[in-house]
Write a structure and sequence with these properties.
heterodimer; A: 257 residues; four-stranded antiparallel β-sheet; globular; B: mainly alpha; MetI-like fold; flat
Chain lengths: 257, 272
């Protein structure tokens, strides 16, 4: 929580480079997300978009590059440029950044309520009664208060993903990351999750969403980022879907629409 | 010849058992003592073996793998004799009793088997679980204790139960080094009374009772580990902790549901 700068972008990535062994998956990516902005990242599979999202909360550690949240540096930095400045702890970063996964990743041995309350209790040290109350409010927000006592296996995929959204929201994050949140869902369940995300966007939450749902992107995306082969090919507002500058972007959009 | 044989066959008598209950009971107690103590030590060791086996340090992981492979490759009977006579004599160790040598041998060999069971239990937990725990700010230890371990325990419980049953049965091998557990006592008694059939039948039944008890104990534990939705299930025979949870959740649901002007991000209970 030290040295936060309210005027700094919520997320600012600079010169992100990531290798998996010899595979250079991110080749110098820059991205800035300001407060309340909704960023949609799209591109073909293997383009590095999920890896990019996962570097924002350091689930993937870039070998090179700057990861700054509210002006605090958490990444390895740009070739010594950030050397000497304090580097924040990844655990502290994750207090500010909520994440929703493609496979939901709810804890199957805990009730829905405990799934949401556990981080408050075990990470923030909030006492049980208050943690459960705050968790229940988040569940009410996503329309699942009735399911407090259920276990994840009893829920549909759409319901599980809504619980996962509540679990991330309960820590009151500065930005929410969504990693293909609807890709594992049956088609008829996609709507309820996108609905929850749309409503969340309307509350002014800062969001970075990796998705193939172009409809959602066109409706919610303030900044739309097209990635291919580890670089950002093109980024822009809604006009990117109708008049993109790059041929690769046009080809991809034509293929998925 | 024939009349004698016929006579022996018909004179089945349970009296030899009832007369020697104290001897058999002493055997049962020692069998249970050796099994419980060995299994407890093996469980503790097994956790360390499993953690070492998964260590990112190559040397540690290789040492643990060697430990597991060597111990599992030696027949238990051979290992017991090797520890009690071989190692003890060569290195001039004097195990005060065969019981101690036996517990030593069992603890080592069972720790290798249990280590592999625990490792597979931990590795059966999907990678996404660890990521989800870390994403809400848990550190590695908190993640392991809160998220990984409870799920690993559920996976490892049935095979661990099988090992426990195996332990009770394997304890009979200690007869070779003269430990007076159940089987050895039965043997001595049979040699003295010539009532082989009655005595061995009795200990078969005793082993059956012991292993069945362990088996149903583990079954009960497995059921206890099954999650119960305390609000969706009819309030049948809830355990006290479940009843308390039910009351707490009912109250919470009602109270939060009645709060005014919530910021909903989806329509109320749509399809829920």
């Amino acid at each position: 929580m030290t040295g936060q700068d309210a005027t700094a972008p919520v997320v600012r990535l600079q010169g992100i480079n990531k290798w998996f062994d010899d595979n250079h998956v991110l080749r110098g990516v820059d991205l800035a997300v300001s407060r309340g902005e909704h960023v949609v990242v799209f591109g073909p599979s293997g383009s590095g978009k999920s890896t990019l999202l996962r570097t924002i909360n350091l689930l993937e550690e870039p070998q090179k590059g700057s990861v700054a949240i509210l002006g605090v540096e958490y990444g390895p930095g740009l070739d010594g440029e950030i050397a000497g400045r304090r580097r924040g702890d990844a655990r502290e970063l994750r207090q500010h950044v909520g994440m929703v996964f493609q496979q939901f990743n709810l804890f199957p041995h805990m009730t829905v309520l405990d799934n949401v309350a556990i981080a408050l209790r075990r990470v923030r040290g909030v006492d049980r009664a208050e943690a459960e109350e705050r968790a229940a409010r988040q569940l009410r927000r996503v329309g699942l208060l009735q399911k407090v006592s259920a276990f994840p296996a009893q829920l549909s995929g759409g319901q599980q993903q809504r619980v996962a959204i509540a679990r991330a929201l309960v820590l009151d994050p500065d930005v929410m990351l969504f990693d293909e949140p609807t890709s594992a869902l049956d088609p008829e369940l996609v709507g309820e999750v996108l609905g929850a995300m749309r409503d969340l966007a309307e509350t002014g939450m800062t969001m970075v969403v990796v998705t193939h749902e172009m409809g959602f992107a066109r409706e919610v995306g303030d900044l739309n980022v097209f990635m291919d082969e580890g670089v950002i090919v093109e980024q822009g507002g809604r006009e990117i879907f109708t008049e993109s500058r790059e041929a690769r972007t046009r080809d991809f959009i034509k293929a998925v629409l | 010849m024939l009349p004698v044989l016929a006579q022996q066959v018909v004179t089945f008598s349970w009296k030899v058992i009832t007369d020697n209950l104290d001897v058999l009971w002493a055997g049962v107690r020692l069998t249970v003592f050796v099994s419980v103590l060995s299994f407890t030590i093996a469980t503790v060791l097994g956790v360390f073996v499993a953690l070492a086996r998964m260590s990112e340090r190559r040397v540690v992981a290789a040492a643990a793998a060697a430990y597991i492979n060597v111990l599992r490759a030696i027949p238990l009977l051979v290992f017991i004799v090797f520890i009690y006579y071989g190692v003890a004599i060569y290195f001039g160790l004097t195990f005060a009793t065969g019981i101690q040598a036996g517990i030593f041998a069992f603890s080592l060999q069972y720790s290798a088997w249990l280590g592999e069971i625990f490792r597979s239990g931990i590795q059966a937990v999907p990678k996404g679980q660890r990521e989800a725990a870390m994403a809400v700010g848990m550190g590695p230890v908190r993640t392991f204790v809160t998220v990984i371990l409870p799920q690993a325990v559920r996976v490892a419980t049935p095979p661990t139960g099988n090992m426990m049953v195996g332990m009770v049965k394997d304890s009979a091998l200690l007869y070779v080094i003269g430990v007076q557990e159940l089987f050895r006592n039965a043997q001595l008694l049979a040699n003295r009374t010539f009532r082989y059939f009655e005595i061995y039948l009795a200990i078969v039944l005793i082993y059956l009772t012991l292993t069945t008890t362990v088996y149903y104990g583990m079954k009960f534990l497995e059921q206890r580990l099954q999650p119960v939705d305390v609000l969706a299930t009819a309030p049948r025979r809830f355990a006290p902790f479940e009843r308390r949870r039910r009351e707490r959740l009912l109250e919470l649901r009602e109270r939060i549901g009645a709060e005014a002007a919530p910021t909903r991000i989806v329509a109320p209970e749509a399809g829920a």
